[in-house]
Amino acid sequence: MDIDGVLYLPNFSNKEQQEEFKKVFAYSLNLDKVDNKDWKINIDKYKSGYVVKFLYDSKMLGAWVVFDIPFQKIDLELLRSLNEKAEKIFREEWFYGVKDREALEALLARVDNGFLDLNHTPLQFLKLKFFGIR
Length: 134
Fold this sequence. Notes:
Helices cover 35% and strands 23% of the residues. It is of the alpha+beta class.
């Protein structure tokens, strides 16, 4: 079996998280435009990780190894560093992205914390979807 990539995802052992992953993965492949009887995404558990297989017409078209990692809380400095690296990768200095400290802190507080004892985005994939990150 050829492996198409390796993913490191927090909380992947959670079944609900796996179902969210399947939805996001299918959406990223534009499978919402294809009859869902023709394709399937399987997640198989192995000793130290998982294998995600994409099947179309019962033929395996792709396989990815997934390792479940502990959730890493993103602090302000890590977020600033990631933003700078992304700008370098995409070779742009632009007004997109959050640049000021207060806005970054507000974004982090909104992702990490619910309010009134409600967590509106309990899963990481839902948080990414909520903030429009693909």
